[in-house]
Write a structure and sequence with these properties.
Blueprint: E1 16-19, H1 27-35, E2 39-44, H2 63-71, E3 75-79, H3 85-96, E4 100-103, H4 109-112, H5 117-123, E5 128-133, H6 148-154, H7 177-200, E6 204-209, H8 210-216, H9 221-227, E7 247-251, E8 257-261, H10 267-273, H11 288-293, H12 295-306, H13 311-320, E9 325-327, H14 331-336, H15 338-342, E10 346-350, E11 356-360, H16 384-391, H17 396-404
Parallel strand pairs: 1-2, 1-4, 2-3, 4-5, 5-6
Antiparallel strand pairs: 7-8, 8-9, 10-11
Helix pairs in contact: 1-7, 6-8, 7-8
Length: 409
């Protein structure tokens, strides 16, 4: 059972994670563990935050608040100064009662604090220590810091992400996929180490480098690049990796864009759905090879056709025939669409002052089980006292002493 919701029994109930991670590259993963029921305790340096001010309904969510609401739900918060010996003692007491220590410091920071894997395992041989960093603990860049945009560039995929126009500027993803991929691999590593612990009784040190994760995301492009000697360029938006034609975005009558991906088995239902059965009799488009050869002419015909109705109307007609397509949505529009609503992918929270805050739900489903409750972020240090008292069983006098010395907040 998690300390946040004693009634829930999700898969990771009973697992305790000490989360030292910051920004996106760590917290995205620890949020996943929290969504799955782990008792995630954020370990943060003093001072604690004051209680959050009540905000009325309709008040905007700032960029900083967006990070908090996206990445720090389903976690408790404890403030302790790990640079002080007594603060490290508190932390090691927590390690004795925990399963995972999860951090994204640069390599060497935990060792300088005296909290590397050897120190953690000395007090708990079953502990899993997961470290996320830009480049890992080996190699010439091991101690270099990394930002998501640099990792995306170094990982290769940015060279083939852009508008496809000659001389266009390379583009990063609209979300920090370098950070996110590292976090996801870290969660996989933690779960695998926990499974190994079931067999051996021993913990494990897990390391994930953001660059390694970004390189792994290149998937099928890697054997193509090395085995076939293919030199990739930024592809045209109307060219898919599988060679499908027609493909990509088309502007519709309302100014919105509709993306299509029409493999050969969808060509007939596609033409019928958009009311262009005459294309089926056009010898220029009778096969995939011919459609590829005559793509410019086909694109012009489709551009004219799609301008005749709004994107949502075309989308409805194509979906009704099972043809792969999708209107290019805004972020809010993506969560408002019927499919996302049916899947319950938007979670609503209401703050004490009445402000509504929305966040993405857990995309993992378990058959026969309802989604587990999601818990809002906690102010920094909000759970320090109860964790020290209820989990570590510290007497009030010791908690007061630690607070007075500034070791906890």
């Amino acid at each position: 059972m998690t300390a946040l919701d004693a009634q829930a029994a999700p898969p990771l109930a009973g697992l305790r994670v000490l989360d030292l991670s910051t920004v996106v590259a760590g917290p995205f993963g620890s949020e996943i563990l929290g969504q799955l029921g782990a008792d995630v305790i954020r370990i943060q340096p003093p001072p604690a935050d004051p209680a959050w001010a009540a905000r009325p309904r309709g008040a905007p969510v700032s960029e900083a608040e967006g990070f908090t609401w996206a990445l720090q739900r389903n976690k408790r918060s404890l403030c302790v100064d790990l640079k002080k010996a007594e603060g490290r003692e508190v932390f090691l007491d927590l390690v004795r009662r925990s399963d995972v220590v999860y951090e994204n410091f640069r390599p060497g920071v935990m060792q300088r604090l005296g909290l590397d894997y050897a120190a953690l395992a000395a007090v708990n041989q079953r502990i899993i220590a997961c470290a996320i960093s830009g480049f890992g603990s080996t190699g010439p860049w091991a101690e270099v810091g990394a930002y998501d945009v640099a990792v995306q560039a170094l990982g290769g995929s940015m060279s083939i992400t852009g508008t496809g126009e000659p001389g266009s500027i390379p583009c990063r993803w609209g979300v920090p996929v370098g950070d996110i991929a590292g976090s996801m691999y870290a969660v996989i590593g933690v779960l695998a180490a926990l499974e190994e612990r079931e067999r051996t009784g021993r913990g494990q040190a897990v390391e994930v480098a953001l660059l390694d994760a970004q390189l792994a995301l290149n998937t099928y492009r890697v054997p193509q690049a090395f085995g076939a000697g293919v030199k990739f360029e930024t592809p045209s938006p109307r060219q898919g990796g599988a060679g499908s034609v027609p493909y990509g975005p088309f502007r519709c009558g309302d100014g919105a864009w509709l993306v299509i991906a029409i493999a050969s088995n969808f060509w007939k239902p596609f033409c019928e759905a958009i009311g262009a059965a005459e294309l089926l009799a056009d010898v220029r488009f009778a096969s995939l090879a011919l459609r590829q050869q005559n793509q410019p002419s086909l694109d012009v015909l489709l551009e004219q056709r799609f301008l005749g109705a709004p994107a949502a109307e075309w989308e409805a007609k194509l979906i009704a025939r099972g043809v792969p397509c999708g209107k290019v949505n805004t972020i809010a529009g993506a969560f408002a669409q019927a499919q996302a609503q049916a899947r319950g992918m938007l979670v609503r929270f209401e703050e004490p002052g009445g402000r509504e805050v929305f966040a993405a739900a857990n995309p993992i489903r378990f058959m026969g089980e309802a989604p587990w409750p999601q818990h809002p972020p906690r102010p920094k240090g909000a759970d320090t006292a109860p964790i020290l008292a209820d989990l570590l069983l510290y007497p009030e006098a010791r908690i007061a002493s630690l607070r007075e010395q500034g070791i906890v907040a």
